[in-house]
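Reviewer has doubts. Consider these tokens.
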Amino acid sequence: MKWDLLISTAQHPEFTAQEVISRSIKMAKLAEDLNFDTAWILEHHFTHYGILPSPFGMAGYLLGATSKLKVGTAISTVTLDHPLRSAENVAALDQLSEGRFIFGIGRGGFLKDFKAFGIDPTTSRERMGEYMDIIHQAWSTGRAAADGDFVKFDEVPVLPETYTKNGPPIYAVATSPSSMEWSAKRGYPMLMNWLFEDEEKVSDIEYYSEIAAEAGYDPESIDHALNILVSVTEDKEETLATTRKYLSWWMDEYVRACQMYDADTQGLKGYEYHQDLWKGWAHKKVNTVDARVNRAIRLNVIGSKQECIERLHELIELTGLRRFICAFENLGETDKVLESMRIFKEEVAPEVEKLIGTSIDDATEISSTTKKRTVEAEEA
């Protein structure tokens, strides 16, 4: 099992930017002490949903502040930067860390980012493919040239060479079927999202595996990662109340920031799936903040230690996943976040690992504990 940490740098109005950054650094250092495998950092612009615009800068700092913890981007928005810059930056981090950097990528889903940087969002899928081809060329040969639809340049040497042969591991965020297909054809493991029901997660993995196998990859050897929200303390009621408070703000901030669901962006080429998803939630009446928070509590690892153990066991047995990226910041205050990390890694994760391979009541139904948590969430 790989237990990873997600650092979102979301800045709730209660906290200053310095408090958020300081908390992030403390989380990474504690993650190393607790033997988490990887700390994943995000890239966001122009929003308190995440105040880290330069994941490479933060990655360099965290890699220098630790000695064994891996650091990954979840994600670096590849389409917003020149591919040569990305190739150079990642190669430098790979060298500086002696192979502890993981390159998590995505095409971007926050429309104002594209507007501000002067990039047409409807080209994001094609742009990402072209850019990644250039990056791979740079890492595998030490040189790159391009005469594509989006960038053109004469051949140049790309330095430094990577520490890891042919470049560090690459993960790709995959939400829509087209993104899953794109990732599978390249053999990139998926960065999966907790947003979907368990049976949808299983279906996504099966869909990816079928395409990856056709492309010549062994699906069993591909190490997908699922990001999950985790809140576990000694006081369950306080945990639920605090998590509800911060998740409500966080989810509302996301909708404001991404602009994906605004009336004037409907039908945007390349993002139809995401907009249809939101419409589906609206039809099911789960698009309000309260409904989305209730759903998040139901789908994630939030509650008492025993509930968290059972929910994680359930996720593992249903999906077969062995890598989880755990987000703890939904408890807000630094001390509570760090306490939750300790309890999870020392008291929850070991018990979950003991249960791996054992049956759950019914793999097609949510467990009795999760059903109870669902009722509690919806009644709150």
Remarks:
- Residues 225 and 323 are 5 Å apart (CA to CA).
- The chain has 13 helices and twelve strands.
